[in-house]
Every structure is written in structure tokens, then in C-alpha cells.
Design a protein that fits this description.
The protein is α+β, with helices and mostly antiparallel strands and 214 residues long. The chain contains 8 helices and 9 strands. Helix content is 33%, strand content 21%. A hairpin with a 2-residue loop joins strand 8 and strand 9. The relative contact order is 0.23.
Length: 214
């Protein structure tokens, strides 16, 4: 499957030199990962959940300190799968450092594919569902004296119910309709454990206010 990942030039150089890269944000003191920088439970919980889903799919985790590498399947819908380096979003990522956009061909069985927009709900420990379903969940929480603004997970059964709602991210057709998106602008991402040199089809270096380097 063709996917696209944006990584610091240092990671690209490591990949070319060593032939493989594994993301280990908790072991890297210079990591700018959300996971490494997080001071509350929400982001580590979401990352742990997505790791469990990858393993449930049969994707063996190379080590307990290894976390997923992230990529786009569709950056901005089926007609704009590849990230546009002219966009303000992408340019802002690389305003202070050089980055590399890699086009990859990765076996489908090594990928966990899901809705990008709803992943934000996972990171914020939010319920995913229709307006009616979400409001019903909120009412039940408030009725039980639970604040929706949490600094710790909900007690059971609310925690499991919230995490079960996250399964929506894997149903691309249903999530697209729920977000009221057309296929042409449905953003889809993928995670995988091992970034390998042989997966790289092409690479473009950019950022830090300098011209593209191919």
C-alpha cells in the first residue's frame, strides 16, 4: 500500500544508514513527540490503546519501548493523498528544521489504517458517536457526578464505554459519513512498527525556509 510519512532529516539519514527505524520517543531526550511531552493521562492512554489494536491485528510489537510510526494514506482525501509541501500546515511543521517527505510502499498487513479526524477524539479522551449518542453519554456521566473535564480516566463502566466508542476510527465509511465528509476530502492515516529502507519509493527534503532538495 502506498503511504506517506514526514520525518526529521536525522531519522531519514538513520534509515538510509541502518536500513530500519523504530520510534522510541520515551528513550529519546530530544524527541518532540506528543507522547514524550505529555504530562497527563490522555495521550499515553490513546497511544497505548492504538498499540494494543495493532497487536490485536497480529502486528507483533518489536519491543515494549517501540511506538508506532505515523503516515498518511490520504492526506486530504482520495484526490490529494500525498501531502502538499506548499500547504501552510506542512510548512509550519518544518519552519525551524529540515524534514523529509517519504513516499512508501508498505505491505498492507503491516498497517493499521484509520480515520485521522476522529483520532483527535482519542487523544482528548472524548466519546466518538452521533450527536445523540455523545449527548446521552455526557448525561449519564453528569448524572453519576462525573466531570467531562478529566485529569484521570473515568471509573467503570464509563471508561470501557468511552474506549469502545473509539472503534469508530476503524470504520472508514461510517466515520466519513458521521463527519459529513466526501471521499475527496476524507483524511486517513496509518500506523506501523518498522520503517524500512526498502519501503522508500522516493524522498523529498524540505523546510527551514530553504528550497526543496530531491
Amino acid at each position: 500500500m502506498k503511504i506517506y510519512t514526514i520525518q526529521p532529516v536525522s531519522i531519514y539519514n538513520q534509515l538510509i544508514c541502518e536500513g530500519i527505524f523504530h520510534s522510541q520517543p520515551l528513550l529519546d531526550p530530544d524527541s518532540n513527540s506528543f507522547l514524550a511531552a505529555s504530562e497527563d493521562f490522555k495521550i499515553p492512554l490513546a497511544y497505548g490503546w492504538i498499540c494494543e489494536k495493532m497487536m490485536t491485528k497480529g502486528m507483533k510489537r518489536p519491543g515494549n519501548d517501540i511506538f508506532p510510526t505515523w503516515a498518511y494514506v490520504h492526506w486530504w482525501g482520495s484526490k490529494h493523498s500525498k501531502p502538499d509541501l506548499r500547504s501552510s500546515q506542512i510548512r509550519s511543521w518544518a519552519k525551524d528544521s529540515r524534514m523529509v517527505l517519504m513516499t512508501l510502499e508498505v505491505p498492507a498487513e503491516e498497517l493499521l489504517v484509520f480515520d485521522y479526524g476522529f483520532w483527535i477524539y482519542c487523544l482528548s479522551y472524548s466519546y466518538i458517536g452521533t450527536v445523540k449518542e455523545s449527548e446521552q453519554f455526557d448525561r449519564l456521566c453528569r448524572k453519576s457526578g462525573l466531570s467531562l473535564w478529566r485529569d484521570e480516566p473515568f471509573p467503570e463502566p464509563f471508561h470501557d464505554e468511552l474506549l469502545n466508542s473509539w472503534e469508530m476510527v476503524f470504520d472508514l465509511e461510517k466515520s466519513r459519513k458521521l463527519r459529513r465528509l466526501k471521499k475527496d476530502n476524507h483524511d486517513i492515516q496509518a500506523t506501523f512498527w518498522s520503517l524500512r529502507k526498502e519501503y522508500v519509493v522516493s524522498a523529498v527534503e524540505f523546510g527551514n525556509g530553504r528550497k526543496l532538495k530531491i
